[in-house]
Write a sequence for this structure.
């Protein structure tokens, strides 16, 4: 199936305007909660600077910190695996599962496993993995990817959830009561937790000096999964590393406030060593990150702590929905990460922005997101990933604007045509005119006025 | 004070009144204003579409027009920001640097360079202020809701000097209007939806006018207002600051 580009998918999303308004307002409400939390801390901007500096420092000494982390994790009795890409990541996990011949597997939220398309892969291997984050479970039932990295099912309303649960959990048809539905999910997931033999989790931070990984969830599902499982596999992109445990005091404060406006995530669990009898693995994944690290203009996108504040603030994301970005990580940050993974397939994403700059200013680690969007556009044009008609149009425009006399003639002719033959412009071939009036063309330009009124 | 007026191409062609107001206002405030006659465009439409590499001719023309100017003032936050951030030319780097440092958006020129404390303006209407993103987040014409920093607004400071004006803010004080350059046609659906939402919040305040520092955002909002036959109109801030309706 051909993937729709962002503009067409967004148009389809917006066609249901009440739903779009609901989506926009719900996420704007999260953004406002974040504002309140941020404004409650006079040292907010200081925290952002520290977070940004710690990440910058870490990214420029990544080899050192990754080795330190591995050494300490091994000393803690954890098995460390290195995966160069998504396929290797999936294979490594599959091997661990096979070696233990384990059937009951739970997974808490991990955007990395989404990025590696782990769910599809493992299903093809005939293994069932149950997502235990409520939102992720809902989209997993529906066979959809998450539409938001923190709120995976934010594109769905309670009616949709009710239908899904009716189909998969045999809840009452038409009962949309959120409490009833969550209770059903709770019973369903409790059973999965109790019998889980292997738990996969993501990683929010990996502390080099201790070899520990930190997992933040509001539902406690990572903890419930790992507590009963014989095997714990934690998966992380290599940029999750931070040098010291004390740096968590910066990142945990920023993460929760930026993500949901909470002062602290409900569960911030530090996993350092396996419990007696348990086996613990950490899979460290590259999957294009080295390449991104090698791009001076884009390397600092790897500072991202996946808080999704840039999603919630983005006026385009709120009105187009996560699926319109056709990638695991949507939103503004996804639009600067995904061209690195596949430039051709994701060439539309850096253009899905007005460059308003809200994302860069909301970002807790100060990634210059909107400037990178601009820079990706230059790269994509240079590499030839822009439609020929657009290329021709913009090159023609550039030529015209480089020649003042031609520009003046074109302006004059254009205005004349618009005044005498408005139907040439005011028609359905003009995307401006579809829902907006054109400006009323004046008889004279400013230059004409200036010649008459100031030059003589 | 000598000022070279930078009139963005679409203002020259479609909104000459905005440029006239800018010129008259600067003259009223004691500036000697000239308009370099061969100017065309700042190059932003190409650059924001990924074609910065194609705009060398346009950049060269801009440099030729403004190389001797001490102060360059333009009534458009977004075009001024583009020049400040991206004007370069391999043969003319010194001149380009001088221009990048000497260019001002109108309201920042009024508050920071001329340090205007009062204006001979009167505009007895209800006016909604639209914060254009490039002026706000790029040129820092005002503080923004994302950051935890002291709040201020240069456009608002000036509008408050206008007699009879009643200034109103929309619910979301600084959300983007969705114009976004070529975004407005390549992402037509999102662009229009964003614009409709901005317009609605201003209409909820029953304003007569929506104003701002960027005519491009206002052109987009005005297009939507006129399509829905609203009684609200868009008007550039220069036209209000230069107004003297008795
Ligand atoms: S880019 Fe910044 S705001 Fe966006 S998810 Fe990452 S850390 Fe959060």
């Amino acid at each position: 199936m051909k993937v729709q580009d962002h503009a067409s998918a967004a148009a389809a999303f917006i066609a249901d305007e009440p739903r779009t308004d609901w989506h926009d307002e719900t996420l704007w409400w999260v953004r406002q909660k974040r504002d309140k939390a941020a404004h409650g801390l006079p040292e907010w901007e200081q925290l952002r600077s520290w977070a940004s500096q710690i990440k910058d420092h870490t990214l420029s000494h990544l080899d050192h910190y990754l080795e330190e982390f591995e050494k300490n994790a091994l000393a803690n009795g954890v098995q460390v695996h290195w995966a160069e890409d998504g396929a290797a990541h999936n294979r490594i996990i599959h091997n661990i599962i096979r070696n233990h011949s384990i059937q009951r597997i739970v997974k808490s939220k991990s955007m990395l496993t989404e990025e590696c398309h782990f769910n599809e892969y493992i299903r093809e291997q005939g293994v069932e993995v149950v997502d235990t984050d409520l939102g992720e479970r809902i989209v997993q039932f529906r066979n959809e990817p998450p539409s938001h990295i923190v709120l995976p099912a934010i594109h769905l309303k309670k009616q949709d959830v009710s239908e899904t649960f009716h189909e998969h959990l045999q809840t009452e048809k038409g009962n949309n009561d959120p409490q009833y539905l969550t209770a059903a999910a709770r019973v369903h997931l409790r059973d999965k937790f109790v019998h889980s033999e292997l738990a996969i989790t993501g990683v929010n931070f990996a502390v080099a000096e201790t070899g520990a990984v930190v997992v933040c969830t509001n539902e406690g599902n990572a903890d419930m999964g790992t507590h009963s499982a014989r095997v714990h596999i934690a998966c992380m992109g290599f940029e999750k590393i931070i040098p010291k445990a004390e740096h968590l005091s910066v990142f945990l404060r920023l993460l929760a406030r930026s993500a949901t406006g909470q002062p602290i995530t409900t569960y911030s669990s530090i996993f350092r060593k396996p419990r007696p009898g348990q086996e613990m693995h950490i899979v460290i994944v590259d999957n294009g990150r080295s390449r991104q690290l090698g791009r001076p203009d884009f390397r600092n996108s790897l500072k991202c702590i996946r808080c999704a504040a840039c999603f919630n603030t983005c006026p385009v994301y709120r009105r187009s929905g996560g699926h319109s970005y056709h990638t695991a990580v949507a939103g503004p940050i996804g639009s600067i990460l995904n061209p690195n993974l596949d430039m051709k397939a994701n060439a539309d994403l850096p253009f899905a922005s007005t460059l308003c700059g809200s994302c860069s200013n909301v970002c807790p680690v100060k990634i210059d997101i909107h400037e990178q969007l601009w820079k990706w556009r230059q790269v994509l044009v240079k590499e030839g990933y822009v439609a020929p008609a657009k290329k021709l149009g913009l090159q023609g425009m550039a030529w015209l604007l480089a020649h003042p006399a031609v520009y003046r003639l074109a302006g004059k002719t254009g205005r004349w045509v618009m005044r005498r033959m408005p139907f040439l412009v005011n028609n359905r071939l003009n995307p401006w005119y579809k829902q907006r009036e054109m400006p009323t063309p004046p008889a004279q330009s400013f230059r004409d006025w200036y010649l008459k009124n100031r030059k003589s | 004070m000598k000022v070279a007026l930078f009139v963005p191409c679409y203002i020259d062609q479609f909104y000459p009144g905005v440029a006239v107001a800018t010129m008259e206002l600067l003259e009223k405030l004691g500036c000697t204003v000239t308009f370099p006659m061969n100017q065309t465009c700042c190059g932003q439409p190409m650059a924001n579409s990924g074609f910065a590499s194609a705009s060398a001719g346009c950049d060269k023309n801009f440099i030729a027009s403004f190389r001797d100017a001490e102060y360059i003032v333009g009534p458009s936050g977004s075009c001024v920001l583009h020049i400040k951030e991206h004007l370069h030319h391999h043969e003319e780097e010194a001149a380009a640097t001088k221009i990048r440092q000497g260019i001002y958006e109108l309201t920042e020129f009024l508050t920071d360079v001329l340090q205007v404390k009062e204006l001979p303006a009167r505009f007895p209407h209800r006016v909604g202020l639209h914060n254009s993103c490039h002026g706000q987040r790029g040129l820092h014409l005002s503080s923004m809701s994302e950051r935890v920093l002291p709040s201020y607004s240069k456009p608002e400071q000036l509008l408050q000097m206008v007699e009879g004006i009643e200034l109103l803010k929309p619910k979301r004080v600084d959300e983007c209007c969705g114009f976004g350059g070529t975004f407005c046609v390549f992402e037509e659906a999102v662009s229009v939806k964003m614009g409709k939402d901005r317009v609605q919040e201003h209409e909820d305040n029953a304003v007569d006018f929506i104003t701002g520092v960027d005519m491009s955002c206002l052109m987009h909002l005005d297009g939507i207002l006129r399509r829905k036959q609203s009684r609200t109109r868009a008007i550039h801030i220069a036209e209000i600051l230069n107004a003297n309706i008795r």
Notes: The pocket of iron/sulfur cluster is lined by residues A 258, 304-310, 333, 362-365, 367, 369 (CB under 6 Å). The first helix of chain B runs from residue 9 to 14. Chain B has two domains: 2-113, 126-241. Chain B has a mean pLDDT of 96.
